[in-house]
Request: fold
Amino acid sequence: MILAIIFGFLIGIFVGSFFHIGFGFFLTGLLFAGIFFAYKNFVPEENRRILIFISIIILGITLGIMRVSVSNLYATSQLDNFAGNKISAEGIIVAEPDVRESNTKLTVSVREINFENSTTSVRENILVMASLYPEFHYGDKIRMNLTLKEPENIDSGDGHIFDYRGYLRVRDIWYTASFVKISLISRGHGSLIKTGLFKIKHVFTNALNNALPEPESSLMAGLLLGTKQSLGKNLLLEFQKAGVSHVVVLSGYNIAIVATSIMSIFSFLLKTDATASVQPTFLKEMFRPKNLSFGFGIISIILFTILSGGGASAWRAAIMVLVALLAKKWNRDYKASRAFGFAIILMLAPNPLLLVFDPSFQLSALATIGIIFISPIIAPYFKWVTEKFSLRDIISSTIATQLTVLPFLIYTNGLLSLVSLPVNILILSTVPLTMFLGFITGIVGLVSLWLSFIPALFAYILLWYQLTVVHIGANLPLGTVMLSAFSPLILILIYILILVFLYFLKKNN
Reply:
């Protein structure tokens, strides 16, 4: 029944994202759900579960549709009256600046607008395109002279259109501005926690940059922190062509490594009897090394996810890792499918627009579906592959994720990578050691640049190997095929065929 409410909620959000349905539907949906639930008392017992299932599905659909109807998708902007006009505005940078090759994108919470000698108080986010210099930081209060404009969907020229408006609406942004004149008013208006985390991130990435050359240092930052934009357009395109762009996206794998490492470190440090001076039983239990290391692990996951920028894929992964740790702590059975469903609902309840308008959420969810549900079906067919270096798991999980992700990727950007499987096999087994060496390099680099060169040398060898494999794979003749755009109905048909194929595959197994 939990699956029914989740499935219905997802259907409702999907439908509500394309059709604005009023409050009358909400009442009608509740009425029908109640009728089916009440009617179960008048049918034979063997049919009652079906009626309960139908009533829960209807309830889930109704809740999903109504959640979207009260979201930002159909809300009006406070800035509508100022669009297209030259205005002066004051605001605070509320997210870490997104530094690109030739510009910086700033998410600014506008607090005050001056237009035609009058001042208006507002509170709404805008996306500002600024030059690389002077540099601005999270929490800076700035004054801007700008012209607001509605974001336009991006047409790649080959029929593939990216819904940029929806993508920004997920982030509570209605308007953008380019060629903005910015001046700093004051600093320190952001959250103390976020400010501290971003400073740590900046110092850590500087330590990596000092110890490693480019583009190896950018790749290491992508592996550890998910900062893939620092790789640059050309290198990112090579990763896409080689089918390994997921390597530089923060995933549950990265977060699990961080949590386990921190818990192990604190468990080691706290092996001295931390409870010796604690008398009450509940305090003694609280200060046990295991409980303290567990607590630090939980906090580290949350802080690390915020530090990485808190993208949809990162939070999905973080929630699933947190559920796994809590299940282990309380000796409960951990089912990845339930944890995945819980993570999806927990993310979509406050922000339902993620389902339709956020590609990173969609790809992360599809990849997770492949690993959880499809990989076990495929794995038995690769018993002949050695388990050394996790090779069998890499092959089965790569094929599984390709089955779920590839059709959607082709639909969105038209790129079909024919070298994805071999490239993934060649580099994924080296990623854990690379991340470990990168972490050591960054930490040691905070103390001594010269000492950081020792782990950096071994990290550089692995990073150079990974970049070389990606470069060769991306530039092989016919390694990547560009396909023309096709309709959503064809995408649905492809997924139906994949489901049928997997059904027979599981049946035969």
In short: Confidence is low (pLDDT under 50) at residues 272-280. DSSP finds 19 helices and eleven strands in the chain. Residues 73 and 169 are 7 Å apart (CA to CA). Residues 2-70 form one domain.
